[in-house]
Give the backbone structure.
Amino acid sequence: MDGKITSTDEIAELIVYLGRAARGGDTGSDLTAAQWTALRFFARANHVSRTPSAFASFHATTRGTASQTIKFLMLKGYLARHEAADDRRSVRFDLTDSGQEVMRDDPLRALSEAIDRLEGGLRAALRQALPSLAGELANIRDTVAFGTCGDCRHFSSGGTTSYCAYVAAELAPADLGRLCINFAASGGMKLALPGLPKEIS
Amino acid sequence: MDGKITSTDEIAELIVYLGRAARGGDTGSDLTAAQWTALRFFARANHVSRTPSAFASFHATTRGTASQTIKFLMLKGYLARHEAADDRRSVRFDLTDSGQEVMRDDPLRALSEAIDRLEGGLRAALRQALPSLAGELANIRDTVAFGTCGDCRHFSSGGTTSYCAYVAAELAPADLGRLCINFAASGGMKLALPGLPKEIS
DNA sequence: AAGATTAGTTTCGAAACGAAATCAGATGTG
DNA sequence: CACATCTGATTTCGTTTCGAAACTAATCTT
């Protein structure tokens, strides 16, 4: 195998390039790239996933580093810390009003705008291809994948209600489009079971 | 505008997520993420773009930081330094044989494999959508875009020959799929002209 | 009850980074 | 030509980020 550049490699590199180009936008705010990623994660994760460990896993870093990032956001007043009721080791972080507000300056908005200007068919293709890629990559790497409840195998829709078989409970409608650490792709992928679900707090 | 999560935002976040998830793969090699990005860049940039400045622009960092990363790769013996013939301030870095070899352990390979397993239509859509996104994003940000010669406005194909209007010279066939710092999207985008082209050395 | 796991945090050293200063060569203007 | 300006590359310095490891506490397993 020589160093030939294939079309596939070009795509892979473009994804990395876009991801990096989008992260630092200098919107004048005072958050670093890691802090933006964390704030974004806590804004978009469902309530069982808004923990330091889940964020560390999502961000492919250690829990220690994740703790530091979160601590800073808490000092800034963008995140509020809540202790879980069922497991006293666990904590959950939610965006404060001030955190919601600063999210409006998310530098990722520029990328979103670029996506909005894409031709509709291409955007639909992205909407289909990227989650699939995330699942495949997690499979190859043998790590946990992230995805939204609506795309998850544990999810089932019964008429007007939404149910998650993993936490064995009804889902809030808002959670349908949210990230979950217990995500399992609908295809034939392996589950990553770290134990079994607890009550939702 | 409240904090509602749109499908477009999901796509943007997925791109960032994939870009980060792909970067650190722990292939057992001794390169950091920044060093991998640099090595990959010098492996895939055409010969007028294999300079510290071009890499700094590509990687959205300063020339100083870029110099350090490159210096390390040179100490490792992965990059060779060549002084440009036409402009004696300028230097060019090329992969050594040893650099070519270590590229086989590129952690990005996992993402490439995932892309390879995509259904063909989706892969083609990515191949079309991502360069377009890169151009749009650069446009919004008012920065320089990167793209391959084959997608570039300066490029024209005359039968068996390939020509670049920017350097006013024939293109090596291998450069067609290579990154160029003088890239201009085919659409109606602005040019970033830092002067005018010199001879190719 | 004892050991193993898991969640979260803290500490510490290495790496990345931005800003600024330096130097050499190239370009532009009067 | 002389002078100012600009560009490409590098070095230094201080700050920030990050990963690894150590640590505490709670939970799970047997």
User: Anything to note?
Assistant: Chain A touches chain B through 68 residues (CB under 8 Å). Chain A is about 40% helix and 10% strand. The helical segments of chain A are 7-23, 33-44, 52-58, 63-75, 97-102, 109-116, 120-141. Residues 136 and 189 of chain A are 9 Å apart (CA to CA).
